[in-house]
Amino acid sequence: MNTIVDRIADAISTADSATDSTTGTITETPRTRLDLVTPSEDDRAFLAFINSNLFGQPAAKEMLLRIHRAAKNPFRDRTRPIYKALMPGDSHTGKTETACVLADYYHGNPEAFIRINCANYKNKGDISRLLGTGPGWVGYQKPPTDEELAANKDKFDASALLSAQNLTASRKGSKTPYTIVLLDEFEKAGDEFEQFILAIYSAAKERMGNNQEVDFSDCIFLMPCNLGMSEIAQKQNHSIGFVTNTVDTASELDGIITRRYPIEVINRFDEVCVYGKLTRDDVNNVLGLHIKKVQKRVDAAYGDSAFTIVVEESARKRLLELCLNDR
């Protein structure tokens, strides 16, 4: 991919002269070189926010920058969602928090996203909760008019979780057009759900039960999962004598993902981003962030002059040990 882009950039940069067909003279044209290395001002602002709110996980931060650039790209393919990322990793490594941070950046609210627990979608009938029921079935609702959509854009539509109305309402009033969809515990979904999502990934459009067509081209799909984590942990814990068994997590996951999903599903993922365990310093930073969040909730409930939470060092150390406790 980079090679192709570099060739395009070279072609643009070397096309610095042209011949006037009427006079036959050669005129100079401005040289343009695409800068693929230096982050733009927008990129730097985005990374500064991410680094302040998401700790550890350097691969995830690089992925988020790619998502941000894909969303901002005016030439992106609008027959596909913005990005589809599979995010395997252990619990409590920041996978769900990634969606919260992205929602906070784009919409100013860490809860401004749609969350779907894939463990609840194992059978064909479960899909109706996403699409809504068809004519003649209990719960059927007629397609809303443009006026109704505009009037109810901030209200949740209980009849179909992935309705056009909910894609907009999930942004919590934000004018940023990107919708974040978190497919939690993606590995626990049934085959019917996977085929349903595959259809959206392939064409960015899907018809609801009421025959309303929904456009998912402005959606970012994040798929956290624990796929392969138990198998990798078993291999890492298996040792002979004093020799500790080292496991290449990335290569092990490649094999597990290949066995778990058909190739047509894997090809629809834009990226597989592995979340590693957080270090003690990372967890300490997360703890500090959550203490600030508690203070914000106090301020929101009682005003800025209510009281200030002060966590002494001994209390912070005790909290940190509780956070690091695997139980």
Task: Describe this structure as you would to a colleague.
By secondary structure, this protein is of the alpha/beta class. Helices cover 44% and strands 11% of the residues. A hairpin with a 6-residue loop joins β1 and β2 (26-28). 25% of the residues are buried.
Number of helices: 13
- Residue fraction in strands: 5-15%
Query: Can you list the strand order of the major beta sheet?
Result: 4-5-8-3-9
Radius of gyration: 24 Å
Which structural class fits the helix and strand makeup? Answer: alpha/beta
Helix content: 40-55%
Main β-sheet description: 5 strands, parallel
Count all strands and give the number. Answer: 9
Question: What is the approximate shape?
Answer: globular
Poorly predicted sequence stretches spanning 5 or more consecutive residues: none
Tell me the series of helices and strands, N- to C-terminal: HEEHHEHEHHHEHEEEHHHEHH
Secondary structure topology:
Elements: H1 2-14, E1 17-19, E2 26-28, H2 41-53, H3 58-72, E3 83-88, H4 95-107, E4 114-117, H5 128-131, H6 146-151, H7 164-169, E5 179-184, H8 191-203, E6 205-207, E7 213-215, E8 219-225, H9 229-237, H10 249-260, H11 263-266, E9 271-272, H12 280-302, H13 313-324
Parallel strand pairs: 3-8, 3-9, 4-5, 5-8
Antiparallel strand pairs: 1-2, 6-7
Helix pairs in contact: 2-3, 12-13
Descriptive key words:
two-stranded antiparallel ribbon, single chain, alpha/beta, 9 strands, about 325 residues, globular, five-stranded parallel beta sheet
Q: What's this model, at a glance?
A:
This protein has helices spanning 2-14, 41-53, 58-72, 95-107, 128-131, 146-151, 164-169, 191-203, 229-237, 249-260, 263-266, 280-302, 313-324, and strands spanning 17-19, 26-28, 83-88, 114-117, 179-184, 205-207, 213-215, 219-225, 271-272. The protein is of the alpha/beta class and 327 residues long. Strand 1 and strand 2 form a beta hairpin.
